[in-house]
Amino acid sequence: MMAGIRSALFYVGLGVVTPLFAIPLLAVWPLPFAVRESIARGWCHTVLFWLRLTCGVRHRVEGMANLPPGPAVILSKHQSAWETIAFRTVFPAHLSWVLKRVLFRIPFYGWSLKALQEIGIERDSTREALRQVETLGREHLAGGRWVVLFPEGTRMPPGETGKYAQGGARLAVAAGVPVVPVALNSGLCWPRSDWRKYPGTITLRIGPSIDPEGLSAAELNRRVRDWIEAQQRELDRTAC
User: Fold this and answer.
1) pLDDT of 9-22, one tens digit each?
2) Model confidence pTM above 0.90
3) How many domains does the chain have?
């Protein structure tokens, strides 16, 4: 009962603050990307604060020292919407997300994603999606932004593993940039199939970066999957 009340309060606040940040972000669209992203980061910090205040959900980050100095491809486990908010507060670099283009249609939130020049792909065509990821991803990496992908393509409940698509690994090999693997257990506090949020501390674990030199996309993808899933066996058993 209490989790439902607290979660309802969280969503009310989320609905209020999102337009308050989205409108200024859209208003400064002609300005440099860094200005727009600073507003997006402010929204992310605000939402996480409200999540902590209403639902008691905190987080800790492990492995910040593993981040490479230059642009990289982040390949992460995906268990909830929490990581789509938290990553902008965790990673110091400018981020580019690979996401479904249909999300751009969502009022305020989707419009802001468009203003942030996220990489929207058509999920219905695998071949076209791969081409878009590689072409646009290389442009963003060359511009100093880091590209974030969820190789399983969708949210996976704790303890479950999906098929790891090779799009992110192919991008890293083509661009010659390292991959940063990320494991997390956000699904324990923010379940995929439950609108309620549960108090606890989410762990986000950043692994050692992997240099793609001399590796095929398949081998790089396998190394990422092996590291992430080895961490998940521990994290998914940890009480949130």
Assistant:
1) 999 999 999 999 99
2) yes
3) 1
